[in-house]
Amino acid sequence: MHLQLVPWLAAATLCATLCSSSTLGTTSEADKIASLPGQPKVSFGQYAGYVTVDEKQQRALFYYFAEAEADPASKPLVLWLNGGPGCSSIGAGAFCEHGPFKPSGDVLLKNDYSWNKEANMLYLESPAGVGFSYSVNTSYYSSVDDKMTARDNLAFLRNWFEKFPEYKERDLFITGESYAGHYVPQLALLIVQSKLFNLKGIAIGNPLLEFNTDFNSRAEFFWSHGLISDATYESFNTMCNYSQIRRQAQSGTLTPVCSRVNSEANRQISKFIDTYDVTLDVCLSTVSSQSAVLNKLQQTEKIDVCVEDKTLKYLNRKEVQEALHARLVGISSWTVCSYVLKYEYQNLEIPTISILGELVKSGIQVLVYSGDQDSAIPLLGTRTLVNNLAKQLGLNTTVPYRVWFEESQVAGWTQVYGDKLSYATIRGASHEAPFSQPERSLVLFSSFLGGRPLPEGLMSESAVETNKIIGDQS
Ligand SMILES: *[C@@H]1O[C@H](CO)[C@@H](O)[C@H](O)[C@H]1NC(C)=O
Ligand SMILES: *[C@@H]1O[C@H](CO)[C@@H](O)[C@H](O)[C@H]1NC(C)=O
Ligand SMILES: *[C@@H]1O[C@H](CO)[C@@H](O)[C@H](O)[C@H]1NC(C)=O
């Protein structure tokens, strides 16, 4: 998938359409979804619609809410945010990762590992300009930053709870991935400071936490996975590193040296590698328009690598938009990542790792996890950042680095610091971990919500011993 940490997309000219009735009533009934086109019959409630965050400027954020499959009253509320900046939590999170359904042709297939098995899942398209969320005053799009996003997300939650008062006192968790490594801690901090809601914890996957560490770990990841040569890795260490490349590319001033190093790496990696998961096959029709046929021949994989294309088609169907109570305001079609929003790219450099420290100190559970096949924000940088944070906070290791299991296979590694901060990898997972490792991701999610340690596996000591001996012989 190609949807997080997107390069800059040109802002299109907009015409503000009429959408005077931004407030759709204050109860949830108006937002109730009767049924989504092509969906199988389900018993849980689904809602979607707009929550106004600024009456005067007519700015409203779009959400999709899937109540828990069973006994929603006993389950926590979880807000999910995708990154970008500028990408949709409904397109990515709900329909490609861990929502109740995945689009396939004209229909929706039930996702067996959907996160609403464990929680009431709230997906928010944020900031305005992303997905179906909009601002009638389009000047808003010309420069949106982290502060504005966090403020609107807080306003969203306040007003959403007015629609859904029964969730106001509920245990709240905020989760997300990639650039949501900014959104999630920043929103959580506002909530902690304002003493609003019942926030229990946050979980962030392959998050951008610290610009230099995160981006510079990419070269080592590529090299250690055999995607670039020794010589190219050497160039990253001596001539130009990824944080420089990223910084220069964002400001449009790529130096010839950095450009050469970058081009050589890209040539070696090739465009047929999904950098968000270096082991997963790519969706060929996305990489090259002539390869749609090839892709059909190879659909034997369990993971649908073209699910993003299908989501794009699905969410652009008129009857789907009607069922979701969604409108296209100032845009001609729904896209996974916004083409109208101009995000303040300097904000990528704001370190959010220190905010995690503040949250831990305030008593909030903090889980940082990494899909271990992602080269966009590799585990190498993230693990170092969390480890250093623990040291800085003076937190001792309470669970030493060890494997964790899903069923009888290793699902990743984990380490816990003190009783609030933990780190985990998800083995074989992409940047959007639940997309490529749905079962393992659901186990991680469930343990996190329940405050339980990750499963240590069912193997007895003797079985482990046998395994070791066999391992030594082969
Ligand atoms: C539209 O938004 C811009 C920037 O946020 C603001 O300066 C301007 O006053 C707004 N226009 C109106 C008519 O409110
Ligand atoms: C990246 O390159 C810049 C400029 O040479 C340097 O200051 C910085 O230390 C480098 N970072 C790493 C992690 O090597
Ligand atoms: C961490 O471990 C050290 C050495 O065992 C001990 O002195 C210290 O009190 C521990 N810190 C916490 C916060 O438990």
TrEMBL record:
GO biological process, one term: proteolysis
Enzyme class: hydrolase
GO cellular component: extracellular region
Enzyme Commission number(s) from the entry: 3.4.16.-
Residues spanning the signal sequence: 1-21
Location relative to the cell: Secreted
Coiled-coil region(s): none
A Gene Ontology molecular function term of the record: serine-type carboxypeptidase activity
UniProt KW keywords: Carboxypeptidase, Disulfide bond, Glycoprotein, Hydrolase, Protease, Secreted, Signal
Stored Pfam families: Peptidase_S10
Chain's role: Probable carboxypeptidase.
Stated family: Belongs to the peptidase S10 family.
Record-given protein name: Carboxypeptidase
